[in-house]
Write a structure and sequence with these properties.
mainly alpha, 0% strand, 242 residues, 13 helices, globular
Length: 242
Amino acid sequence: MAKSLAILKKEFRQYFDSPVAYIFITVFLVINSWFFFRTFFLAGQASVRPLFMIIPWLFLFFVPAVTMRLWAEEKKAGTIEVLMTLPVKDWEVAIGKFGASLAFLVLTVLMTFTIPVTAAVVADKGVVLDWGPVITSYLGAILLGAAFLAIGIWVSTLSDNQIIAFILGVSASFVLMIVGERIVTAFLPSWLSQVAEYLGLNTHFNSIARGVIDSRDIVYYISIIGFFLYLAIRSIESRKWR
């Protein structure tokens, strides 16, 4: 794990070696703030639900933008060969890159915490913000983001083109995001709709965002993360870097 930690630190620093990270964080915060506050003062309620309604859809595009370079850039620049000759195992590299991208995502998400704080401060007198669902929503957002990251990292190992990696990452994430939605399950047999609903990324996020932490939701996200990281490691091990 020491080698994975070293890779994590190296990759995390690289995010801030270019203006891309700062642009990413700024745009993410501006979009979240705009969507939230444009209706907050009209609603007259101390609720941050609109914030967590938009975050999954922002993740759908922002997370693949973060992961598309993790392996595709290594392959295109030819540094993948150097990386793989170092005394590190494939899974250590994959875990290190995942950890760095997760740390960056968590940092970005936590920066939005100023929004519920502001909502609590400026709310009408006598209106109190329920912090329980706020905290669990942040937990759900981090788990959802981690799942998107694992998917994006796997996709990034399949191509040396960052644009293709981005499109594939968005597509794969979108499928898993809407598979449990009613617009999909309504057309499926009852037994299959239950399976589809369980597989939906957004289904479990909505469950956590309601303020109830169910172990089934946690197990689901851990399973999704582990599954796609396993696929990424297997893809790396195959050495199909042509």
